Amino acid sequence: MIEFDRVTVTYAGAKDPAIRDVSFTVPEGELALVIGRTGSGKSTLLRTINGLVPHFTGGTLAGRVLVNGRDTREYRPRDLADVVGIVGQDPMAGFVTDTVEDELAYSMESLGVAPDVMRRRVEETLDLLGLADVRDRALTSLSGGQRQRTAIGAALTSHPAVLVLDEPTSALDPQAAEEVLAALQRLVHDLGVTVVMAEHRLERVIQYADRVIEVPGGSTAVTTGLPVDLMVSAPVAPPVVELGRLAGWSPLPLSVRDARRAAVALRGRLADHAPLRPVPVEGRELANCNDLVVAYGNVTALRGVSLTIKAGEIVALMGRNGAGKSTLLNALVGLVTPRSGTATAAGADPRRTRPKQLVKAVGLVPQEPGDLLYAATVADECAGADSDFRVPAGSCQALLNRLAPDIDDQQHPRDLSEGQRLCLALAVVLCGAPPLLLLDEPTRGLDYGAKRRLVEILRELAAAGHAVVLSTHDVEMVAEVATRVLVLADGELVSDGETATVIAGSPAFAPQVAKILAPLPFLTVGEVATALDRAS
Question: Do domains 2-233 and 285-503 have the same CATH topology?
Fold first, then answer.
């Protein structure tokens, strides 16, 4: 169905190719998982499948890509639309209508599908992806996860033979992600659809893949193979695989179910050793909400939320898509006006504080990191941040190098991958070292290495007396770094407690290690490694 024959893509002005000498075949009815570090060329590889590279992005394509027998150099994206459906990293960039239902119907209208068939497919897709309750909503009013599900639905309604997905679960809560992946499984197994998916959160998808395509970046060759074979030495691996490596299991398990069967002896070795966790040293109050109510027209996003966040805490804000997490962060920086109640950040009312003073008290990295980036190059962006926050020259660049060391500082921010743009936005905000740091989906598009580096920085900030609040669906990140978890449901605060207490027993929010080793209270592979060292 898909054939790459010695494909090399080089963008104008780039020193090196984005991908080099790539050859592989994906048969009909398989799910191929594309993995690799942030910025390694995964998105470029995906875009060659429907002709976006080079017809839309520019650059040169050497070699040949065949999709259902069509050469993508000869067929433009519109000529492949009946065969290939694609969902990019930024759903809003691909929307062409105003409402959810119209967006689901648009691709079918373009292909001339009969009205009665269109209606049936729209209804099926609304039910399949849990979008029926927002069918008439404006796309701009949706949460990030709802937008992502809409984008996936818009690609599915035209019934493509090939479906290409770039980070399809990055903005989805765990339950929504499972539903989307289950739907993709049905497409692959029951309808013979070929799915090519790039994803950093391997813990969600690796067990579903028929083959893995590893894109290491640079001059290293792309490799393909069975998931269990590539995971033995892959530099990016989910916690279930890292735990298997630590315990010496063979073959390596790819699912929690298989790992639990292999973990009987490991649970016995760990039974008398509780995990060691640092106790946060809390300081002054840096955020406060008192009976906060926020509404958008007739939709109430927050319902009487009251909470306090203190210096030294790293607080994870969790909940389903549309639960009100982003609204709460926006209220703390004054981007939304409460209907009633109050929200203060570092002692200031964000609605009554001048922006120049507010940025010294609180910093927000939004879901769309590009909203913070205005300069023509990465270097200019970093220099501007140094100047704005009056810190020594090179401070922002140093933070960026820690998060993503391989970014060319002469690139335009829009030419970066989604993960690289996020790293740049993080560096810009972190450069100001605000007492209160708010991060909205801070691991979207980040590989495991970049997430580990971000964890180190957040821990350093907390130790220095800052408070961090991160809205996230990344349960593995929460297990690694959060000292406390708040759970929102339909705008209400339904849970507030220590991380292990809140997430360990939750079917939706428990990390892989907790599921594998339950009822033992371990959350991360690092905690297990420390306990085994103590036991030996």
Answer: yes
Mean pLDDT of all residues in 433-452: 90
CATH number of 285-503: 3.40.50.300
Which CATH number is correct for 2-233, 3.30.70.920, 3.40.50.1100, 3.40.50.300, 1.20.120.530?
3.40.50.300
Which tokens hold the place of 376?
């023509």
In 76-151, where do the E strands start and end? Answer: 84-87
Tell me the domain boundaries of the chain.
Answer: 2-233, 238-272+513-536, 285-503
Give per-residue pLDDT as tens, 18-28: 898 999 999 99
Kindly list the distances between the CA atom of residue 411 and the CA atoms of 42, 352, 381, 382, in Å, as whole numbers in the listed order. 18, 37, 11, 12
Q: What is the DSSP letter of 140?
A: G
Which tokens go with 481?
């770094």
CB contact at 8 A, 321 and 143: yes
- Looking at every residue in the chain, the average pLDDT score rounds to 90
Q: β-strands 467-471, 2-10: how paired?
A: unpaired
Which positions ≥6 away from 372 have C-beta within 8 Å?
Answer: 365, 366, 425, 428, 429
Question: pLDDT of 36-49, one tens digit each?
Answer: 888 888 989 999 99
**Spatial separation of the C-alpha atoms in residues 191 and 248, rounded to whole Å:** 38
CB 424 within 8 A of CB 378: yes
Q: How far apart are the first and last CA of the chain?
A: 52
Give the pLDDT confidence of 500-523 residue by residue, as tens digits.
999 987 888 999 999 999 999 999
Strands 60-67 and 2-10: antiparallel
DSSP state of 438: E
Give the number of other Cβ atoms within 10 Å of residue 309's Cβ.
23
pLDDT at 27: 94
Question: What stretch of H or E contains 413?
Answer: none
Give 167's pLDDT tier (boundaries 50, 70, 90): confident
pLDDT at 357 over 80: yes
Distance between CA atoms of residues 118 and 108, nearest Å: 7
258: number of Cβ within 10 Å: 17
pLDDT value for 463: 92
Report yes or no: 175 and 11 within 8 Å, Cβ to Cβ: no
